[in-house]
Amino acid sequence: MIGFLRGQLAAKHPPQLVIDVAGVGYELEAPMSTFYSLPAVGENLTLLTHLVVREDAHILFGFASEQERQLFRNLLRISGIGAKMALGILSGITVEGFVRCVRTEDTASLVKVPGIGKKTAERLIIEMRDRLDQTLPGSPGGTVVGVPAGAQDEAFGALLALGYKPAEATRMLKSIECEGLATEEIIRRALQGTAG
Predict the structure, then answer these.
(1) Sign of the alpha-carbon dihedral angle for 169, 129, 87, 120
(2) How many helices (H) and strands (E) does the chain have?
(3) Does residue 147 surpass a pLDDT of 60?
């Protein structure tokens, strides 16, 4: 998996862009929210990435922030939401706006996003409600006080990879004193807490 790309912006034609990384041009697709923050062509940049592998193509998506990438990944887990629609949602509404719509069950605002009908908006609200608290950094309930966002996110992701449910992982992280700890130490203490 390619986690990020750091290089020179070679071309940008929404939704496609090309990043020159040591002489190799990587083609990416990115939401408009990322395009708004891109530097001029020829400037250096770093983008977080997500690789979608299909039968007929491997498509690399680029994001300016971890919140955008995490929302994109969560949207892909919803039945009927593909990469193109997830990209469209991120292009049509901010991460904060999307979180607000889900929390307030505001289907009217979601329907304004191109490609989202009433039934899809209702399904997004129902299926994303629990995921927002668990996986979007900065959303209420999604941040453990005193833990650097990077260490918390990495520990949370590791616990999910180990098979814990999002609610269990959150409970485990909240039950320990994590301030200033490295990711590995947070994970170790969280796992020791379940054994005790």
Answers:
(1) positive
(2) 9, 5
(3) no
Query: Could you tell me the two tokens for 93?
Result: 């509404």
By CB neighbour count within 10 A (0-12 exposed, 13-18 middle, 19+ buried), where does 78 fall?
middle
Helix (H, G, I), strand (E, B) or coil at 158: helix
Which residues are 5's β-sheet partners?
47
Q: Output the pTM of the full model.
A: 0.67
What is residue 141's predicted lDDT score, i.e. its pLDDT?
39
Which domains does the chain show, CATH number per domain? Answer: 4-63 (2.40.50.140), 66-135 (1.10.150.20), 149-195 (1.10.8.10)
| Contacts with 183 (C-beta within 8 Å, 6 or more apart), sequence order | 150, 151, 154, 155, 158
